Amino acid sequence: MLAEGTEKRVVERAKNGDRTAIRQIYDCYSGYLAATCSRFLPDPTDQRDVLQDSFVKIFTSLDKFDFKGEGSLKAWMRQVTVNEALKLLRKRKRSPFVKLELDVPDDDVGLEEEPDVGDVPRQVIQGFVQDLPEGYRTVLNLYVFEEKSHREISRLLGISESTSASQLHRARQILARKIKEYKEKTVIKR
Question: What pTM does this model have?
Answer without folding.
Answer: 0.78
